[in-house]
Amino acid sequence: MGKNLDITEIMNYLPHRYPFLLVDRVLEVTPGDKIVALKNVTINESFFQGHFPKAPVMPGVLIVEGMAQAGGILFFDALPPEKRGALIYFMGIDKVRFRKPVVPGDQMIFTVEILKQRSSAVKMKAIASVNDATVAEAEFMATIGEKI
Questions:
Q1: Per the residue annotation, which of 51, 83, 100, 123 is the catalytic one?
Q2: Quick check: is 51 catalytic?
Q3: Of 11, 56, 90, 140, whose CB neighbour count within 10 A is largest?
Q4: Who contacts 72 (Cβ-Cβ below 8 Å, separation ≥6)?
Q5: What would the mean pLDDT of 21-49 be, rounded to a whole number?
Q6: Are 85 and 147 contacting, i.e. CB atoms less than 8 angstroms apart?
Q7: Phi/psi of residue 140, each to 5°?
Q8: Is the pLDDT of residue 57 over 80?
Q9: Phi and psi torsions of 49, nearest 5°
């Protein structure tokens, strides 16, 4: 994988599509170790219609999903060729903390590092930040499913 992926390249790694694709660009990758990815948060996001119309705030569960998608790209990139094309599933999530709200106009940076990896499972630590301030953090586990 190159150091920088645009949205069309990201779609080669993730099965998600609009409106659920939450990574817009990969800024940096250290294969098998770390990824830094970007999410542009805009008022055009469908969830802002109801969360909350007069004071739009990005739902925390979607921030966590964005961190997980960035981690999925990192994990997918480390898979051997025979496992490429398989789905990657959440197994668990721990130590989730939300520090600040994310609002339209923010550029959120996901930094995800692999803590442990086995052949079919991984544990990662993720931090979401806006303007160098942490807005959320979590540890999560994922596993490889069936090829699609």
A1: 51
A2: yes
A3: 140
A4: 13, 14, 88, 142
A5: 96
A6: yes
A7: -145, 160
A8: yes
A9: -60, -30
Instruction: Please say whether the beta carbons of 12 and 77 come within 8 A.
Output: no
Residue type, 123: K
Q: For residue 122, give both structure tokens.
A: 């991984």
Amino acid found at 94: D
Copy the structure tokens of residue 69: 């998608």
Tokens describing residue 24: 């817009």
Tokens of 42: 């805009």
| Residue among 89, 93, 78 nearest 29 (CA) | 78
77 touches 144 (CB < 8 A): no
Q: Strand pairing partners for 98? A: 136
- Across the range 23-45, mean pLDDT stands at 96
What tens digit of pLDDT does each residue of 75-101 get? 988 888 887 778 899 999 999 999 999
Q: Supply the pLDDT for residue 118.
A: 87
